[in-house]
Amino acid sequence: MAVAKVAGPGAPEEAGALFVAATPIGNLDDVSTRLKAVLERASGVAAEDTRRAGRLLQSLGIRSPLISLHAHNERSRTPELLGRLLSGEDLVLLSDAGTPGISDPGMRLVWEARQSGIRVTPLPGPCAAVAALSVAGFPADRFHFEGFLPSRQAARRSRLKQIKAVPETLVFYEAVHRLTAALQDMREVFGGERKAFLARELTKIHESTHGGTLADLCRKAASGKIVLKGEFTLVLGGDGGPDGDEAALDSILTALLEELPTRQAARLGAKLTGTPRRVAYSRALELQVRE
Known about the structure:
Helix content: 40-55%
Distance between the termini: 50 Å
Largest sheet: 5 strands, parallel
Radius of gyration: 22 Å
Shape: globular
Oligomer: single chain
Structural class: alpha/beta
Strand content: 15-25%
Number of strands: 10
């Protein structure tokens, strides 16, 4: 697969390119035509799990050679992959699902490739954090991505206390066997009234979502209303202080005012944020004057 002028300073002219490729988080129809074309022509695919990557390639009718690259061998495997890139091969980097480097391996190879002058280019696509944010209905103009919390309770609670006052929307990944404990710790640290949204098995057949507060999610998990199977992404409202509330209201009202009359926008904004309707209406008028 030839890519014109891919080499950067310090790399041979014939150096190949490293494609950092996002793959489906569930639904295989989310594979882009560009990703398929690059995979078909690549010299090799560096994958977090070669079995999962192999199933993806097989579903696409592609037989590109697979190379194992995961958290435990990335340091030792990177020099070999750099050598192949410098010799002119084009390689694709895949994680199990979603975008490499986002709570997944790949950062070391990307960094070393860039330091060597190799062209590193993204093939954008699915990301569970962004997918969950898009359907949560929470402010997303700014957000704090936390990824996976520590597995031990003491360390997990300590980390939660460190980010308790973050005003932006928070996004977490959580393993199924730790979900209930993590929700309980969040309720303990953040308070049961913190707004929360839980997405399970996004884009898959058994996709489900649950909204409300942390107290609501803890009750649903305890009662079995949340099926404890699959993969979870959790979105929490930011710190409930006055500044955080105002920023959230402004973000939502600004979007609503582009499509709705002032009163309707204020009424819906008040409902979404829990702000008194008269306060939301007054703020909507202020935002319109500012424009």
